[in-house]
Amino acid sequence: MATIKDVAKLANVSTATVSRVLNSNGYVNEKTKERVEKAIRELDYLPNDVARNLFKGRSKMIALFVPDIMNPFFPELARAVEDVTRDHGYTFILCNTDDDIHKEIAYLNALQQKSVDGIIIVSSTITTSSIQKIKVPVIALDRIVSSDLPSITVNNRDGAREAVRYLQAIGCKQIAHISGPEEVSNTALRMQGYLDEVKNEHWFKPSYIQQGEYNPDRAMEETKKLLTKHPEIDGIFVANDLMGVGVLKAAKALHIKVPDDLSVISFDGIALGEMITPSLTTMAQPIYDLGARAAEMLIKRIKNPNQKIINEEIEVELIVRESTRARS
Amino acid sequence: MATIKDVAKLANVSTATVSRVLNSNGYVNEKTKERVEKAIRELDYLPNDVARNLFKGRSKMIALFVPDIMNPFFPELARAVEDVTRDHGYTFILCNTDDDIHKEIAYLNALQQKSVDGIIIVSSTITTSSIQKIKVPVIALDRIVSSDLPSITVNNRDGAREAVRYLQAIGCKQIAHISGPEEVSNTALRMQGYLDEVKNEHWFKPSYIQQGEYNPDRAMEETKKLLTKHPEIDGIFVANDLMGVGVLKAAKALHIKVPDDLSVISFDGIALGEMITPSLTTMAQPIYDLGARAAEMLIKRIKNPNQKIINEEIEVELIVRESTRARS
DNA sequence: ATGAAAGCGCTAACAC
DNA sequence: GTGTTAGCGCTTTCAT
């Protein structure tokens, strides 16, 4: 690996001059500039970023924390963040946290030691104090960590209300909810939205809510329990698409026809939802946009850390597919 | 951020001594060691990795190139690589290349400038020469780039043969193939395996092979063409699961019942395959293991670059699900 | 057992 | 316009 010294020697200039043409700042004669560029080409010289970063105290790297990249919601988010940050010259570090606070803290330390310039976090477990210890900009994505952390989310509660109203509009009379883990802010909000719409209905019973986890299997189990106990249910609002897959499976196992006997709507809008049969009606988040916005916001904060904290909410959109149908 | 100097001052020793206790090498008195450790704790000191790396010429970072993390095959691979490398103290960089040689080269340069310690590559476009320019260890994963690059793959050809033989065993008489892009080595091998089994059958016609791309939509189109032209087809071997989704959709659109009228088997074993209806019979790759093995191999090469080049092949496994059934 | 000092490769004052 | 030099934070000879 050639160094700046080699280039300087070959071009018969000082390293300062080479540095000047490298960063195109300061005056440098056109002739000598050409000599330096020639030397750079001949030596296949690339500046050593580690040395640069040591001097500058930054690294041109950003990191994304997700619970688990294998959850199909996250790859699109990750892709968006990578695209945007790469376009701005950043290198993209991916961290799977499993929503484990110890892993998160370990990552935070490791990244700080590497002078990472900023972090985007999808987390339900991390605490504000551990974030404040490191002094790089952090953005919360998809889930709210604390109101004094800038964030990008969707209007989960309103979206949930809209989903439930949609089921009502197509004629569902008894609407249940398969909820997500309660410690996750966004699914908690989705349950709130569900309750907003149904808690005063004469038919509503607390047992119309079954709590699941972010996987189809658990959702299937809970749905089986629900539908066995409450065969009158004709509509289900599910906390997310992945769980929606389990709800569909449960209905199939119980020989309940979707959408004929039961309408199912979920939340997220992941690609999986249109691949399965029946395809899932859903309140779709603009997933890529969420990631892209978070990345843009982060980069802005890296350039100017004294921006005011904003909690940006993006709209969800109803996508009607095969799992819902108007009842007669 | 406290530096090693601050620690040294507080502990009344030189920076050399602090460094010694940090790296636990060289002699250092038990008493002074305790003083230093106390100072470290009091200052919340964490060594600056950038400075360390500048000195050592390495970075404790590894990178993974994938075409697109949104393709559901890759998140599991990425997860495995991240898990294994993190356990060894490495930071994980993810690069989406879109199988674009220019992006790949840009990444290669950027990573080299950051002194990345090693790279795992899933690529159909990259050339050996561009890899050899950078002198860090590189492992090819999932697809063979060149025989002088260490690699981890599955036995695609044998797996494909086994898939076709399985269709024959359950009584399929005319078996077609929806193939992947021809420039991708592994799907080319799968087509070879298909041909190995059927090219001498009296019923075989070259038009039983339709070439698709790595997405359900294109596979659906191709399958519609195929089944319209050749209604006698009663078995299809599909190059991968994602395309298998499209094949199932095509069959549904044409009112062809799977598995009653048509058996479908694909390749990969991604989670999606068991979520859809009918669930996909497939030749499953041990995806996580592939990634983990590649990561282990890479780390070994980082520690000792003079290992002999091996091309490791891992076995695939038939998983029978709902999309295939014995014909009567 | 510990310290002084050089140097990893680069950038930015500061001179001239 | 260009060169000299200090220094980013760390590790490692080389002395003592």
Structural class of chain A: alpha/beta
User: Greatest interface and its residue counts?
Assistant: A-B, 45 and 45 residues
**CATH homologous superfamily placement of the largest domain in chain A:** Response regulator
What do the pLDDT scores of chain A average to? 96
* Strand fraction of chain A: 15-25%
Number of domains of chain A: 3
CATH architecture of the largest domain in chain A: 3-Layer(aba) Sandwich
SS field, number of helical segments of chain A: 13
- Cα separation of the termini of chain A: 74 Å
CATH fold topology of the largest domain in chain A: Rossmann fold
Question: Would you identify the regions of chain A where 5 or more consecutive residues have pLDDT less than 50?
Answer: none
- The quaternary state of the protein chains shown equals homodimer
Order of helices and strands of chain A: HHHHEHEHEHEEHEHEHEHEHEHEE
Number of strands of chain A: 12
Helical percentage of chain A: 40-55%
Question: Can you describe what's shown?
Answer:
Two copies of one chain form a homodimer. By secondary structure, chain A is an alpha/beta fold. The first copy, chain A, folds into three domains: 4-56, Orthogonal Bundle (434 Repressor (Amino-terminal Domain)), CATH 1.10.260.40; 61-153 and 287-314, 3-Layer(aba) Sandwich (Rossmann fold); 156-285, Response regulator (Rossmann fold). In chain A, 45% of the residues lie in helices and 16% in strands. Chain A has 13 helices and twelve strands. Chain A has helices spanning 4-11, 15-23, 30-43, 49-56, 74-87, 101-113, 128-133, 156-169, 185-198, 216-229, 241-253, 272-275, 287-303, and strands at residues 61-66, 91-96, 118-121, 138-141, 151-154, 175-179, 209-211, 235-238, 263-268, 281-284, 311-314, 317-319. In chain A, the strands form two sheets. In chain A, strands 2-1-3-4-5-11 form a six-stranded parallel beta sheet, with helices on both faces. Chain A has a six-stranded mixed beta sheet with strand order 7-6-8-9-10-12, sandwiched between helices. In chain A, helix 7 (128-133) links the parallel strand 3 (118-121) and strand 4 (138-141). In chain A, helix 1 packs across helix 3 (30-43) and helix 5 packs parallel to helix 13 (287-303). The longest helix of chain A is centred in the last third of the chain and has 17 residues, at 287-303. Chain A is elongated, with a radius of gyration of 26 Å. The mean pLDDT of chain A is 96. The interface between A and B is large, with 45 and 45 residues. The structure holds a DNA duplex (16 and 16 nucleotides).
